[in-house]
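Q: Please design a sequence for this.
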């Protein structure tokens, strides 16, 4: 009455033992077996994760901080090796140089927008109407300049890089042309009027 049940008696009868799936010894593994010397060398060079979770987080934060610092200095100096993925490659470099070598209407949008906003809060109705006209003029000029930039950039890219993929180059160049030249990152490497 007060005795212990054995494990066989306590287990419910509907549980069925699931056999572990056994790998077919004849199936190929997809790679050659490494030599013993190679396996031992790999074992010695393999980085072992820190035993402590806090130490691992600290190491990861330090590594991320170093990567960010390398990217920041690369954006300032134009070093291709440490640039972010969106700025890497000869095609993107040409797009940057092409935009930086010309004067675009879009780069003057922010200063002109501030001026137009100041005009729009003036008490005079004539100045307010002039500010609305200025908005229209600046937007039309930016659109025309962007179309011209798009067409000439694509033509130059087809001539210089016939085998490359140009996906995303036009929006990249247009976004760069909207920025004030001093604030562009990566920093401009060519002067205005200079051929890229």
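A: Design:
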């Amino acid at each position: 009455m007060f005795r212990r049940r054995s494990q066989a008696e306590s287990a419910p009868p509907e549980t069925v033992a699931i056999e572990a799936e056994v790998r077919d010894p004849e199936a190929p593994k997809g790679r050659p077996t490494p030599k013993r010397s190679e396996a031992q060398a790999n074992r010695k060079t393999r980085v072992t994760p820190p035993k402590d979770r806090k130490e691992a987080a600290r190491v990861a934060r330090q590594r991320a901080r170093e990567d960010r610092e390398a990217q920041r200095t690369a954006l300032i100096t134009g070093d291709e090796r440490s640039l972010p993925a969106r700025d890497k490659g000869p095609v993107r470099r040409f797009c940057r140089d092409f935009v930086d070598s010309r004067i675009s209407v879009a780069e003057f949008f922010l200063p002109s927008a501030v001026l137009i906003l100041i005009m729009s809060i003036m008490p005079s109705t004539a100045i307010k109407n002039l500010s609305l006209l200025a908005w229209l003029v600046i937007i039309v000029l930016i659109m025309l300049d962007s179309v011209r930039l798009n067409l000439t950039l694509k033509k130059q890219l087809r001539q210089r890089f016939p085998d490359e993929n140009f996906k995303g180059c036009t929006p990249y160049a247009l976004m760069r042309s909207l920025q004030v030249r001093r604030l562009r990152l990566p920093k401009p490497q060519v002067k205005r009027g200079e051929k890229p």
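Q: Thanks. Anything notable?
A: The chain is about 55% helix and 0% strand. Residues 125-160 form the longest helix (36 residues).
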